[in-house]
Every structure is written in C-alpha cells, then in structure tokens.
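Objective 1b. Sequence-to-structure analysis of Response regulator.
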Amino acid sequence: MTKISVYIVEDDPMVLEVNKGFLEKMNGFTLMGAATNGKDAVAEIKMLKPNLVLLDMFLPDISGMEILVELRTERIPCDIIMITAARDAVTIREVMRLGAVDYMVKPFRFERFQKSLQDYYKMAKKITGLNLLKQEDIDEWLGSSENEVELPKGLNELTMKQILLGLGGAAMPVTAEQLGQNLGMARVTVRKYLDFLAIKEKVDIEMQYGYVGRPTKYYSLK
C-alpha cells in the first residue's frame, strides 16, 4: 500500500506546524498540502483529492462544517478527521452524520493524534484493493463488532459514541461533570455511561482526594 496522502486545514500557523510535526512522526502518511482558510482548502482538496483531510472547524472565511458539506455534496473521495475546539453535542452529532471518521478536540496530545491516524491506516490498508468486504470488516470500519457487549436498557449507541469521542478528545482525564459540560449533557447521564464503561474496563479511573468530602473520579480511555 502506498502512503496515505493527507491535507491539513488549520488557520492558526502555530497549530498547523504542530500538526505537521505530528504527521511527520507517523509512518505510512505523507503531507499533500495545507491551507489556512476554507476557500483555498476546498479548491486544493478538489484538485489534489487527498486520501485524508484533517479539518479545523473554525476558519476565517467559511466553517469547517461548510467545507465538509461541500465535499460530501460533490462526492469528493476523501475521508475527514475533524480537529477543533468545538465540543457541543449538536456539532459533534452533525459532523458524525456527515461521515467524519473521527473527531479530535483541541488541545490534544500526540498520543491521541497517533491513535486516530493509526486506526485509519489499519482499516484503509485492510480494504485497499478489495471488491467485497466481510461483515466483520464493515463492523471494524464502523467501529462496532458482534463481540461487543450489548448496551443495557437506558443507554443508546449515539450517546455512547459521543461519550467515547469526548473522552478520546480530552487532553487529560476529566470528571463526569466536566465531560458533561463539554458535550452539553447532564452529569447524571454522563455518569451512567462512564460507570458502564468502567465495569467493562474500557476506561481508567483516577481518584483525587481533597481535604474534605468524597474523592473525585477522573476518567480517561484505556
């Protein structure tokens, strides 16, 4: 498999250089181009047709959401990973409905960037050159599996995905209240999902003790 071509859209020059540096550390990827505004990005993406676009949400002219809609409307054959400070649940849901393969919340560590691109690379490599996919291949691509434990009554897949995306995009461990604020969800709702993930050993829990009262739980993905 040839290297995956990547185009980066980021209006902050310093953040752009950081993301370029992260990408240089990754095997199997090559930078095809970059833009600091939406209109240049759309024109070059349509012309170059990269395999993968790392797309910022907030740009000086048009939004990353508008770019995503235009690329999907014109059926440009590229995958999208959103990289943004936007954490509201409405935006995240809309981005996922439009087919983004991942959603990274700024600021993030290299480890999160690395995981996102490695996961993308593994599946891209697996399906390259195949005409037909097995069900397990499709499930892996969509992030689901027959081997996963069925969610109990009261929990739904869409909310679970938002919780997992929120945890994955967090720069450091978060409390249920913090994650709820980031996602626009009630703390009680978030806690139910986090408790379920803890039972299934999908999250790490760090206890921080104060001078009085109960210890505070901080959650992060394993």
